[in-house]
Amino acid sequence: MGRTFADIRALVLTHAHIDHVGFAERLRREKGVPVSVHKLDAKMARGEAKPQNQKMLGIGFAAVRFIRFALAKGMLRATPILEVTTFGDGATLDVPGAPRVIHLPGHSEGSAALHVPAQKVLFVGDAFATLNVLSGKTGPQLAPFGSDLPRATESLSRLQGIEAAYVLPGHGQPWTGGVGEAVRLIREGAPH
Description:
Layout: E1 11-12, H1 18-21, H2 24-31, E2 35-38, H3 42-45, E3 55-56, H4 62-72, E4 85-87, E5 100-103, E6 112-116, E7 121-125, E8 129-131, E9 138-141, E10 145-146, H5 149-155, E11 166-169, H6 179-189
Parallel strand pairs: 1-2, 2-4, 7-11
Antiparallel strand pairs: 3-10, 5-6, 6-7, 8-9
């Protein structure tokens, strides 16, 4: 992208699961970049709590690749983020792009989407995915891990009416078929 670490002004997490926290603490500590997360995931981000009641969907051969990749990248050794700022539902964040927060509990308690209307972008984190890393299935679907899968499906109703040319999930390719269509497809295939 032609950018350096010096260009990063903020790091906003859609949720605080270990595979999304990544190098956030290092970026905060070494470069002074503030890290923000929904207030209901702040304890998890700081390492004070673990994900609760995790369920898994669609385990298949792809799970072996995912587990091998996760172990190689140190996914079991997350570094807690010592200082996080928090946000709540409906907030407009004072970071580049001024994203609006849409709270989508279910994947985690503090799972949130970030809508940047000026760029026609919706970051959904793991509220939904276009790749199930455990089964290899593609297309809009619930992410393969979550605390409350029925609630995650129900939360997607909060995305109805959102206009975005690009929906960017935490796992899989960008979705360009419309937010409403993604939600419809997810509901058709969601576990009950």
